[in-house]
Amino acid sequence: MIDIATSLALFFLAALFEIGGGYLVWLWLRENKGLGVGLLGGLILAIYGIIPTFQPAHFGRVYAAYGGIFIVSSLIWGFVVDKKDPDIYEIIGALIALVGVFVMFYMPR
């Protein structure tokens, strides 16, 4: 069994790879950045698919909890990369999603 910090690190690493890979595919298709950028994005997305397998739970629970982490990570990506400040409702929604992650994934069973 892995500890909460390691589990959260895996969730956020998965989010980085999913969002980063998707962003590169976006750049390739929407902003004509070249096939190499798209292929790199596809490779990163494939690696993203492996990372959640290291979580200590079944597929459904891992991906349900990951959804909350993805919400938070997407807002962070938007802030850092796209220079878009989240509004108060996005922040509140992200906090609600994080509470859901902790209830679903980290409560003792």
Question: Which SSEs are present, and which pair or pack?
Answer:
Blueprint: H1 4-31, H2 35-50, H3 59-80, H4 88-106
Helix pairs in contact: 1-2, 1-3, 3-4
Mean pLDDT: 96
Largest sheet: none
Approximately what portion of the residues adopt beta-strand conformation? under 5%
| Shape type | flat
Helix content: over 70%
Structural class: mainly alpha
Number of helices: 4
Please write the string of helix (H) and strand (E) elements: HHHH
Q: Please mark out the parts with pLDDT under 50 across 5 or more consecutive residues, or reply none.
A: none
The overall number of domains is 1
The gyration radius over C-alpha positions equals 15 Å
End-to-end gap:
13 Å
Quick one: how many beta strands? 0
Keywords:
4 helices, mainly alpha, 109 residues, single chain
Descriptive overview:
By secondary structure, the protein is mainly alpha-helical. It has one domain (4-106). The protein is 78% helix and 0% strand.
Explain briefly what this protein structure is.
The mean pLDDT is 96. The chain has 4 helices and no strands. It is mostly helical and 109 residues long.
